[in-house]
Structures are given as structure tokens and as C-alpha cells.
Predict the 3D structure of the following.
Amino acid sequence: QVQLVESGGGSVQAGGSLRLSCAASGYSFSKACMAWFRQAPGKEREAVASRSSGGTTNYADSVKDRFTISKDNIKGILYLQMNMLKPEDTAMYSCAAASTSACPDLEWYRFVLRGRGTQVTVSS
């Protein structure tokens, strides 16, 4: 079964750090664009970070210089290191894989594989 499974979410105080992981089973994302999305209650889902297979990364302005996307192709795991967390980072975080090596427009529906998410809660 092809799937993406996120882990690493939790509750943390503002200023803290978390590292999210996204494990791929039945799928090799070494040649795919990968991305992290998040959705807070009552808000639309937004792209947080993306990484092309060639290593080009992009970040939402709200997380630049705080979040880092990376991946381990041997282990088949995508990471999102989140530092200096803020209460407004509270959301369900999900990973996604595109069918192309370059990243498409960062719309959720453009990604062919999507995980169910892991909850991140940041308290003030």
C-alpha cells in the first residue's frame, strides 16, 4: 500500500522546537517534489515548505528562517525542523508528494500522495 505517514507532532511552548517526519511506504520519493502543508481550525490549508528532487526549497514567508525542510532518500523520510515556534503555528501538518521532480504550484490538490497529518500545538 502506497502511503505517507507523519509523526513527531505534539504540544510545545512558544519558542520551542519540534521535528516532524514523513515516512513513505511503497513509494520512492527520491525523484519527487515533496511538501509540507498545514491547516489550522477555521482556516484554509496552506503550503509551509517544499523541496524539489534537485534540492530547491521554498518556504512560506511566515516560517522563513524558522523552519527547514529536508529529506533522507535512503531512509525514505521527509523532515520538517521547526524552531522558534509561535502560537500561530498551531495546526495539523501534512506531507505530500507530487508526481514531478520540480514542484508544481503549491496547491494541495496538485499533489498525488497526501498524508493524514500530525497535530502541532504551540502554547503561549
